[in-house]
Input
Amino acid sequence: MKRTLLLTSLLGLVTLLLAACGGGTQQWKTTNITGVMPDLKFTLTDENGKTVHADAWRGKVKLMYFGYAHCPDICPLTLATVGRAISQLGDQSDAVRVLFVSVDPKRDPPPVLKEYTQAFGPEFVGLTGTQDQLKALSKRYRVSYSYGEPDANGEYAVNHSSAVFVFDKNGDVRLLMNREDGADAMAHDLRQLVNAS
Amino acid sequence: MRNHRALSRLFIVLGLLLAGSAMAAEPVTASGAWIRLLPGDLPLAGYVTLHNHTDKPAKLIGVKSAAFKRIEMHHSMTMSGMDKMMPVNSVTVPPNGEFSFSPGGYHLMMWRRVELHFAQQVPVTLEFADGTQINTQFTVKGPAQ
Output
């Protein structure tokens, strides 16, 4: 009786494992938020100073991260992690774009953003906008940003979301990543999105 | 440009001198010091691990360098999905222990006075509450580290 119970449990476990590993359905290593948030839509200014809409990158897998260029620690750390993931894609890296949305338009005019994003690789694009545009976009993805008190030198920190939102080729929201996921997990999931038809 | 080259040379000479003086038994030593280079005149982050070889806490109260107008100690943290950065006045290296300024945690926030280049060594002085000063070389690395 005991043995039967053990066998049944083992069989159950094997079935569960098989279901988890195979079957052709996509398994994600970062957080799946498909259908939980709206598709990618915005009007912003690109790093060349031109008005741009989300559909400019139709057909690319898009990662969107809110930050600011006067952020020497967390933002580069996040962008560098994403960059390592993209480089793991090899030939397919051009199928991905990272939209770095500066929520500090006062200090991050397009030329500053352009230099900043270029430092991380050709897949990185700097975007910013008016406070109205930035507020609308951050509200759309239920995040916020705020400014710290300026110090004696007029320097201030910007509080911003740590989330990296990932949209598929059609602009539908798919994943939520953060730097703690690590480059390997990000690369795994990005590859699946790039290979999806 | 010429000035920068002269300044770089000065740094190298200073660096050698300082490296020599660091050979003496120091109460606190530094290792793995580097700076993340960003374009233009954006502020930079510096990282270093401090080792306290005494049985008393070592309180770091100031950081300075001829290459920077200002250096502050900052703490990055993620709270409820928000990334924040706060200045701190000091950090304490525990007795016979270590303290790390590392990406995503504590960092030195550095406003440039001079142009910096990849692989350059930049001398930085760390000042402790008991008057101890240590000099260490920070290596300039690329942004995507």
